[in-house]
Amino acid sequence: MAEFLYRLGRASAHRARTVIAIWLALMVAAGTAFFLFAGELEDSFSIPGTPTDQVNQTLKQEFSGMGGGAGTVVYQTEDGSAFTKEQRDAIADRAEKAAEKDGVEDVVDPFATEQDRAEQTEKLDDGRAEIKDGREKLEDGQKKLDAGRDQAESAGMLDQVEDGLDAQQAEIDNNRDTLDEESRKLEQGADLTKMSAELRSVSKDDSTALVHVAFTDSQEEVSQATREDVMAVFDDAPVAGTSVDFANDIAMAMPTLVSPAEVIGLIVAGVVLVVMLGTFIGAGLPILTALVGVGIATLTAMSLSDVLEMASVTPILGLMLGLAVGIDYALFIVHRHRRQLKEGIGVAESIGLANGTAGNAVVFAGTTVLIALLGLNLTGIGFLGLMGSVGAIAIAIAVLIAVTLVPALLSLVGMRILARRERDRMGRDAAGGRGAAHAAGAHLRQMSTVRAMGRAAVAVIALGVIALPALDLRTGMPDGSSEPAESTQHRAYTAVADKFGDGQNGPLLVTANLPGGPTEESAKENAADAQFQVAEKLYAHDDVAAVAPIGVSDDHTLGIFQVVPEGGPASASTEELVHTFRDMEPVHGLGPLGVAGMASGNVDISETLSGALPTYLTVVVGLSLVILLLVFRSVFVPVVATLGFILSYFAALGGVVAVYQWGWLGGLIGLDTPGPVLNFLPTLLAGILFGLAMDYMLFIGTGMREAYVHGAPARLAVVQGFRAGRAVVTAAAIIMISIFGGFVFSETMMISSVGFALAFGVLLDAFVVRMLLIPALMHLAGNAAWWLPRWLDRLLPDIDVEGAALERAHTAEPAAAPADRTPDPADEPSPDGLDDTVASGRR
């Protein structure tokens, strides 16, 4: 691979303009595909086959017009007074017009609903009065009948009139039974009215009204155009004296690809590059190539959005990864090229060597990230696998650009990649050559064992403490409360919570099997009784604010109930309620309840993702361990690299929980309302952070291995490798943190939390794990760090990721023979056979 990349770098440098033209053509092609084929991005997530999805599919089959998406429009009077008749009529008129839009099943006039409720209450009162009057008449009739019976008995005529009196008594008894049955049904209706009292469309003070919109398509399939058409009906013709806002289910804001925060991140990255490389040309080259790669990857991904159900966050994730990784990968090659130029190697030869050494490491680093991202498809969760695939496209393009376009641009730049002062002293430094650099390494002092133990302890304890909040991790999807305070979604959510209760922002839809009957009349009668039983049992829970039966199937065997929880859609109590309902069998022998709704869907997605995470990590980590084993030819290094990732992963999750779930420092990033962590973030973070962590392990670890292969003692090689790689890894980590950190200030909490998790995870992994913990553990391991069983050493191919063989072939300096290296007095005695296997690893 190193030799191939060396030739590829030389060829790209030799045909620089051709290479540049090819990449520009690819960008034009990607842009053309975007303009011709790009479709709408989705603003919601779903997983087919979950309990919520099964309930929705049943509703579509059994009930005409149900199973579609929903939206809520919130009207409020500006002064908090009750709506006037003119305002009510105007809002009802707009609801009627919105119902005529394509893709809309129905729009409910809130005032008509409340009028129906009032009429129902009036009917109940009238019914009670009629039943009372009927009972009084029956009692009068009973008294007269009893008096007549007594008179007939006294006159000795009872036998003659007894049949007539019995018939009258039977009629009275029948009437009494009828009144009792009607009274029972009336009281059931009264109880149901009481249970649904909090399920209102107009607030108790008549200052806020909810217009409910039902769409024909499912929630995730409702087009943005349909939503905008509906919102335009209410927004473009304001009702005097009122304000209108739209809930998250209808006004889900699409995040923008580029915002000022990302631009600031790029500026910070540019400053870091200028400081490190000392020249604007050198600083601009990695940014330019990263932008080219991101442009091609993002446009390509979005051109597929018409044939794939792509979430709005998916191309942003590709942009985030492609930008950060693209800059870093280019930086590694540019840094190596600059170092070689200053050692006196010619431009063309240096480009080839940099591509064969640093470029080789870039390829393997990119491979670990690719495995981690493509592995997301193993979860079986469509939207998450697509995110991983789009991210993998961005990584693959970043790698290809790093080993082709970067060499081409370096060729055109020539010696100007170095600052003027660096070029001026090149002649003086060239005499020292690379041997001088290695000789300088001999004067480095290895760290003491006590210091190594202290550094390892500090790193582990610090990461453990930071990870503690992860024990309280709750996952879910963002709702209106997590939107910016000035957004219409947040205003709508707050108004509903204040005037109707938190649960009205995410009611549950519950289905129950009903007993049916041999005839339609008996089935109808049994369904009514069963509905009441189910409603009673649902309402009996403390966390339920309201219950209302809203429909029965044509065969009277399936009933639907709307349940308003006490807590919001993202609350722990609502999540527990979903589980409780699904375990219930309210009507004996008819099976458990089905639950759907926003909160239910979030619970299902979170649990599916949690269940898939262990398998995903096992496969991805296993494959990456194989790559690290090939790269480092060591058992110890891949194991500690992976254990270090586990520490940084849980510490990053702890930081996310502290900020986004607990609300610590939330004000600094514009987080007004803390809530559950984005449900797919733990899985996404695991894949991406693992890949990036292995990147830094490669660039730190290969420097140590390179020093060891060149003959340095094991513990001194740790210091030499760390000193050789720390500057570029530090710069690369700061750049990546800056890019990811720019997304933290996104108005969309979904994007913000992903950006924070990645930025914080890279910060901990690069600076605490790779640059503090790993060198300490490598020192403590000594020679054992490079131990490899003989049988495994014979099986593994020598991939020479650090490019030592390439350097020996293309430079005059031979590698130091293992037998000639200065022994390390501090090295511990090796186990039996260890020296042989270590020596065999130094090829």
Could you characterize what this model shows?
- With 843 residues, this protein is an alpha+beta fold.
- Helices cover 65% and strands 7% of the residues.
- It has 27 helices and 10 strands.
- The protein has a 4-stranded antiparallel β-sheet with strand order 2-3-1-4, with helices on both faces. A 4-stranded antiparallel β-sheet has the order 7-8-6-9, sandwiched between helices.
- A hairpin with a 5-residue loop joins strand 7 and strand 8.
- The radius of gyration is 36 Å and the shape is elongated.
Task: Kindly summarize this structure in a few lines.
The protein has 843 residues and is an alpha+beta fold. The protein has helices at residues 2-14, 16-37, 51-62, 85-98, 110-154, 158-195, 224-235, 260-277, 280-303, 313-342, 347-374, 382-413, 420-424, 426-430, 433-442, 449-467, 488-500, 520-539, 572-582, 598-632, 636-661, 681-709, 714-742, 749-781, 790-795, 804-810, 834-841, and strands spanning 70-77, 104-108, 208-215, 242-246, 475-476, 508-513, 544-552, 558-565, 594-596, 677-678.
**From the coordinates shown, what is the CATH architecture of the largest domain?**
Up-down Bundle
Largest sheet: 4 strands, antiparallel
**Total discrete domains:** 2
Number of helices: 27
Helix-residue proportion: 55-70%
Tell me the strand order in the biggest sheet: 2-3-1-4
Superfamily (CATH H level) name of the largest domain = Multidrug efflux transporter AcrB transmembrane domain
**Rg from Cα:** 36 Å
- The secondary-structure class comes to alpha+beta
Instruction: State the low-pLDDT regions, or none.
Output: 430-442, 813-843
Mean pLDDT: 83
First CA to last CA: what distance? Answer: 15 Å
Shape: elongated
